[in-house]
């Protein structure tokens, strides 16, 4: 009948709608699962980003602390360099003072050596005990001055360190040179005195022999 056909068509249409609805529901469920998985991935990515951000924050804090430590260390090094520079300037002043003192002492020693040389030359002619005694006194005074200068240089050497040791070696070389020069001159003086004694002895023997001759 027409009514039955209409009902059949409606049922058939409802089945199609139901089937389409079921398919849409399946698709919606699939999409829902996809969205759930995407949401889970997004959560995981968010957690990973949060951990990374936290690590970045911690690294930044460590870098800031290290920067402050480096800055403080740099400040300490600058202060230390400034102190060392000031110490070096003070050491240079002491070094200059010591060099000036050494030059002055060396000049005085040269003057005294020249004076002693003149005395020795004079002794070759006069050979008097007074000159010999004066020479010995001057030599003793020079020795005392050298010992005093040696003590002063040693004291300064302890303050200056390696530079003082270099200066002390120079002083020793100069002193050894002066001592060798004096020893050589004294040796020549001793030979001259021995020759004088021999001549005096020969003269005395000659006088005795002349006195012993019969007239």
TrEMBL record:
InterPro entries: SYCE1. Residues 18-66 form a coiled coil. GO terms for biological process: synaptonemal complex assembly. Pfam families: SYCE1 (PF15233). Keywords: Coiled coil, Meiosis. The keyword Magnesium does not apply. One of its GO terms (cellular component) is synaptonemal complex. Belongs to the SYCE family. This is SYCE1 protein. It comes from Passerina amoena (Lazuli bunting).
């Amino acid at each position: 009948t027409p009514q039955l056909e209409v009902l059949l068509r409606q049922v058939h249409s409802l089945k199609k709608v139901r089937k389409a609805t079921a398919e849409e529901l399946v698709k919606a469920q699939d999409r829902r699962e996809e969205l759930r998985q995407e949401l889970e991935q997004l959560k995981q990515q968010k957690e990973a980003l949060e951990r990374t951000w936290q690590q970045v924050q911690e690294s930044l804090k460590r870098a800031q602390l290290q920067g402050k430590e480096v800055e403080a260390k740099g400040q300490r090094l600058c202060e230390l360099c400034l102190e060392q520079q000031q110490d070096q300037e003070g050491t240079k002043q002491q070094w200059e003072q010591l060099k000036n003192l050494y030059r002055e002492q060396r000049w005085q020693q040269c003057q005294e050596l020249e004076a002693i040389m003149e005395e020795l030359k004079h002794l070759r002619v006069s050979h008097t005990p007074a000159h010999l005694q004066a020479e010995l006194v001057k030599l003793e005074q020079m020795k005392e001055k050298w010992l005093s200068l040696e003590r002063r240089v040693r004291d300064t050497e302890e303050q200056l360190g390696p530079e003082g040791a270099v200066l002390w070696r120079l002083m020793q070389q100069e002193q050894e040179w002066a001592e060798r020069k004096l020893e050589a001159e004294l040796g020549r003086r001793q030979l001259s005195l021995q020759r004088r004694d021999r001549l005096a002895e020969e003269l005395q023997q000659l006088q005795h022999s002349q006195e012993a001759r019969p007239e």
